Amino acid sequence: MSSFLSIDPQYLASQYTQIERAGTDKLLSAKSNQFSAQLNAIKKLQTALKDFSTQLKDFRSSADSSLLANTASSSSESTLSVKAGSTAVAGSYDVFVEQLAQNHQLALSFDPAATLATDGEFSIDLAGNSFSVDLAGLPANATVTELAAAINNHVDNPGVSATLMRSGTETFLVISSDDSGAANQLSLNFTAGTDPAGADISTALAGQQELKKAQDAIVRLGSDSAISVTSASNSLSGVIEGVTIDLLKVQTTGDSPVSIKVGQDDEAISSKLQQFVDGVNGIIGSINKDSNLNSDSMARSIQNQLRSAFQGTFEGSTLYSVGLEFDRNGKLNINSKRFEQALAADPAKLDAMLSSDTGVLAKLETSLEPYSKNFGLLNDKTKTLQASLDLVTEKQKRHDYSMELTYKRYLGQFTQMQVTIAQLESSLGQF
């Protein structure tokens, strides 16, 4: 007699378990997706906000925390180059380069293979600061190579460099001051000991050659002026306010003075400001585009803080009057016409409105700090969302374990049912 009932215990247990767990799985999955999406959105916002806050902080703490920018040009870039800072004043200036600054450099002739004396002191004085190399402290059979190393590595070295140079069959110990300027004069001396080989050093000192003399840079201001400026360095930062002049070549009699022109760089100023406008728009735009942020109260608060930072007056004027405005979509824009007019009328006032300690950038930095700092509100928000996600994950684990037991229970029941059916079939088969 054929079987009237056939069942698969594993299949049935799986199907019944799946039916029983489906509702809870769907609920927990939805919660997990919700918290994950919110967490990822907040983390992206947190990164963007930190990056923008760092940009603000770095700019405001820099040596030149001004949005103003100037440009400078030289009529002879091979003679001198120029760079203008924010405090430079527009105008034309003439400079004649009479002399470049030099470091002091002396050369002493040595036999490179000759062994130095085993005692005595080789002394170097630089602008009144002196130190000595005790030859007794050099390695055995030391040559001029070890003397140069001892000079460079001396603990009391105030700024002297020693190196070896070769010309034909001669080797020279070249000693140089690291810094240029007439004040950085070198003076060499040797106090002999008992070793007769010390005479070689005394002979080298007696025949020393001055490769470069210590001297200041000298420039003459104006085309017909007798006013001269001296500098220990070839980089002059105080001759023309806000302008750094790097001297490159000496001029000769009959040369025309180099013309330096300084002017306001409106394009660079607009570019600087645009970077901060883009930063504001980037954060506002990311909040508007992400439903997880758009519906989040803290994200909306950040958006409101950004907008409110531009409200009120700065130096007695509104930011709208100088070209900064929000459009109907909440995007911050620069009205070029109003901005250029404000820049032309009073650049110092405009800069104060934007980048001073009471300007809009400072206000933005202060407004965003509670959210952007390491232990700020957004950090707390991410911790709360992560904790909620972890709780859902833990509930899912417990649910999986519970459903595993349910599956085993169903499997046991259907397995017993299969056994019972088999027994019934066997009994019926006897008739």
TrEMBL record:
Domain Flagellar hook-associated protein 2 N-terminal: 7-104
Stretches assigned to the Flagellar hook-associated protein 2 C-terminal domain: 214-425
Primary localization class, coarse: secreted
Keywords, comma-separated and alphabetical: Bacterial flagellum, Cell projection, Cilium, Coiled coil, Flagellum, Secreted
Subcellular location: Secreted; Bacterial flagellum
Superkingdom, taxonomy of origin: Bacteria
Membrane-crossing residue ranges in chain numbering: none
Xref: InterPro entries: FliD, FliD_C, FliD_N
Quaternary structure and interacting proteins, as annotated: Homopentamer.
Family: Belongs to the FliD family.
Protein's job: Required for morphogenesis and for the elongation of the flagellar filament by facilitating polymerization of the flagellin monomers at the tip of growing filament. Forms a capping structure, which prevents flagellin subunits (transported through the central channel of the flagellum) from leaking out without polymerization at the distal end.
PANTHER family to which the protein is assigned, alphabetical: FLAGELLAR CAP/ASSEMBLY PROTEIN FLID, FLAGELLAR HOOK-ASSOCIATED PROTEIN 2
Name of this protein: Flagellar hook-associated protein 2
Taxonomic source organism: Rheinheimera muenzenbergensis
Highest classification ranks of the organism: Bacteria, Pseudomonadati, Pseudomonadota, Gammaproteobacteria, Chromatiales
